[in-house]
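STRUCTURE:
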């Protein structure tokens, strides 16, 4: 029995209404009411102000009984998406404000499709803002600098916190079934192949003398050399942030001190590539598998890690992660037990 042309048309409308990319807020000024700090499962999630994704299907359910039934049937057979979009407002010295395009589950509406923990890709657009002058104290100083304590770049730590929260809770950070962010022996549930990060030109007219500090607080020479280039006004702000982000990622994937555990998690949960773009044009591509192969020489080569205990930990972790990545590529079930929680310390 075939569907009527009318029902086919209606399902097309439902698809467009429910599955379209959410229009991101124009600025932090317009998007504060429903944002809350991400529940603290890691110190890196401080300064992440998320909002529960809106569900456009709710308004359709209220039209009448017939539309309610049709939308319920549509959602029942709607397969889970394999790719997701998230807009991230980078509000300097405040935090990261993500807006996911994903309809959350509706009360009382079941789905025929089984949920999957395998994600093909995440496309993230990133926009830079100075904090609004009228912003409440709740949103201030979420990701700020205390260089006297030798702190790493808080904004880059914030991006890692977003990534870690996704690995544990999935798109929209809505999966609370795991609850093991604070258990280093438990591997996260969600696996992603590719992450595309498109850094856009700032939408406002600010000079953006720094891409990681509020212009009102900017002082030349305030930051250490590891942030070199953040205030080079001869380079567009979006390009400066791309340089900082790719530099930080290279350090994490190279197991630089203090970033080692962050790099481990990326190798354990990503099978493809990071693709950094600037205003829609590819800036740099980082193949995770190639980075992992280079690490083996660093640790196990003739001039590698001199500490025998560290070498053995790496060898055990590498055997486990190679098997895990092989299963990831085939879409198989993954173990939730991490045999090596950290390589050093």
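SEQUENCE:
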């Amino acid at each position: 029995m075939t569907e009527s042309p009318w029902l086919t048309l209606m399902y097309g409308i439902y698809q467009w209404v429910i599955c379209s990319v959410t229009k991101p807020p124009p600025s932090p000024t317009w998007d504060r009411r429903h944002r809350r700090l991400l529940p603290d499962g890691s110190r890196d999630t401080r300064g992440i102000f998320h909002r529960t994704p809106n569900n456009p299907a709710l308004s359709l359910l209220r039209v009448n009984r017939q539309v309610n039934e049709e939308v319920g049937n549509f959602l029942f057979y709607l397969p889970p998406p394999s790719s997701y979009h998230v807009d991230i407002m980078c509000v300097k010295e405040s935090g990261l404000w993500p807006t996911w395009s994903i309809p959350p589950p509706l009360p009382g509406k079941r789905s025929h499709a089984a949920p999957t923990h395998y994600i093909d890709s995440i496309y993230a657009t990133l926009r830079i803002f100075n904090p609004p002058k009228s912003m409440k104290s709740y949103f201030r100083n979420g990701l700020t600098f205390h260089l006297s304590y030798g702190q790493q770049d808080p904004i880059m730590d914030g991006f890692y916190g977003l990534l870690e929260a996704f690995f544990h809770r999935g798109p929209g950070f809505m999966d609370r079934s795991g609850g093991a962010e604070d258990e280093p022996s438990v591997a996260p549930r969600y696996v992603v192949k590719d992450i595309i990060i498109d850094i856009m030109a700032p939408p406002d007219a600010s000079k953006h003398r720094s891409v990681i500090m509020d212009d009102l607080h900017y002082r030349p020479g305030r930051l250490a050399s590891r942030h070199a280039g953040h205030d080079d006004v001869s380079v567009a702000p979006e390009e400066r942030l791309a340089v900082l982000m790719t530099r930080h990622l290279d350090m994490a994937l190279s197991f630089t001190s203090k970033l080692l555990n962050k790099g481990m998690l990326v190798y354990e949960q990503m099978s493809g590539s990071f693709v950094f773009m600037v205003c829609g044009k590819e800036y740099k591509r980082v193949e995770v598998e190639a980075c992992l192969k280079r690490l083996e020489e660093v640790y196990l080569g003739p001039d590698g890690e001199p500490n025998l205990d560290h070498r053995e930990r790496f060898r055990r972790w590498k055997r486990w992660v190679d098997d895990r990545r092989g299963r990831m590529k085939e879409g198989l079930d993954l173990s939730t037990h991490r045999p090596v929680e950290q390589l050093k310390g």
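REMARK: Helices lie at 5-19, 57-61, 65-77, 154-169, 237-253, 260-269, 288-300, 308-330.
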